[in-house]
Amino acid sequence: MQMHRIAKTLKAKYLSTGSFPADILSVQLSDIPPETPGPQQLHILRLSSLLSTPAPEKINLACISDVPCDTEALKFPDCNIILLPQSWNEPEAFNKIQDLLDEDLHFMVNYTRLKEAIIGGQSPQQFVDLCSEILGNTVIVSGKDTKLIARSHLHDGKSILWDEHGKYGFFSESTVESNQYQAMQKKLYNSPSPVILRKMISDYTTITGKIEIDNFQVGYFSVMDTEKPVTKSDKRMVAAICELLTYYFKNNYSHENEEALERNKKIQYLLEGGKDGRRFDFHTEIACLHLDAGYRIMIVKHKSRRESLAALLSWTMKLMPGRAVAEYGENVVVILNSDYRDDADKLDKFVSEHDLYIGISEQATTADKFRECYARALKAVELGLLLGEKKRLFYYSDYAVFHLWQMLSEYSDLNQYCHPAVPRLLEYDRSHRTDFSKTLQVFLKHNGNMSSTADSLSIHRASLMYRIEKLQELLKIDLNDVKTRNYLYASFQMMWILEHKH
Length: 502
Hints:
By secondary structure, the protein is α/β, with parallel strands linked by helices. Helix content is 46%, strand content 16%. The chain folds into four domains: 97 residues, Udp-n-acetylmuramoylalanyl-d-glutamate--2,6- Diaminopimelate Ligase, Chain: A, domain 1, CATH 3.40.1390; 132 residues, 2-Layer Sandwich (Beta-Lactamase); 137 residues, Alpha-Beta Plaits (2-Layer Sandwich), CATH 3.30.70; 86 residues, Arc Repressor Mutant, subunit A. The chain has 19 helices and 15 strands. Helix 14 crosses helix 19. It is elongated. Pfam families: GGDEF_2 (PF17853), HTH_30 (PF13556).
């Protein structure tokens, strides 16, 4: 056991002036610091004894705070020091730390057994039976699609999920679509480590961990409290088992994500632009991406990185089976084809729950447009958020003109291209505390339709007609003219870009 684990478990203040904490194999009580300490021993003594007697180098100490002391006074060369509460006595400290050492020893012995079983080529069922023996409960290994791979105690369990695994080998569609199952999946999604699920969808409390290969989820491992309550220490063992199963799946088990992994590499290559100088043979190497059939790029983007990118990638693949999906930078990239709007709709609820945004590019048909489509999907999200749009799905086609003005603004002053009526109207609103510019923008957005404009502004049609007449009189323009309306609408877009340029 390492010193930092002891400190964390005891919830004590930990100070280290040495290098990496030593592995602790034994613990002993001391009245004063020993003259010849062992690097893998932890000595427990009172802080007053340490301060009155010089400490040797490379010593591991757990000091009971019987006297006040500042941090600087404890910086001895190459010493690892844990401060224990004043309320503790020496036997109490010794017993608690010895329990931790015993727990670590027990963990390492069992971990070695499991590792040898994996390396020795035991079958999933043999490995599961060993896991069950070690954890003292029923365990299950299943694929990410809930398909049963192996479980212990085949005939001892009860609950809907137990019965469905026994009868069908996977969970029924109604179970997967239930609110309880979705809540369970959401909890698993949000956690990078195994989680305790307290009878969320069965008669048992379980600890469930994800099995992932190169950021792709391939399965689950669960232990259920069929025989005895699960504990926090079981979580550590479940995490270790998931790591071993990852090794097993990667080297000995044919899993369905091999094709997805290959697509992921090809998508990343296209986005990198072939930096290694190699070029793809379009008809062979990237044929599986179906770019020549007409594609769009969709990016799924975090607003705030509350969850891991690997979890987001895994969930996107679940919601969009069969699609080419990859991670790139801090985003998930998806290739969409003809039914792209249906695909985007599938993610609507998911992105709202997890604080995500989606950008979708225009259509392309050649591989050389791939990076451009990716950039435009990102630009759609950027411009949509800058515009203050109250949505999470952004199509580049809705923001292409804004993008045009944004690029033009880098080389030229947009003010010289604006219709002179627009800055004049904005100044009039500022001076007279009116809001004619908003009325005109909504009118232009609805292509001059009086009814839809009035509905959008929540005013009577007669009131809108009065405002339009006032605008025409004020600006000396004819709003019935289509060219004039288009010029005005483009000018408002340019003014918006100018306001948000910096």
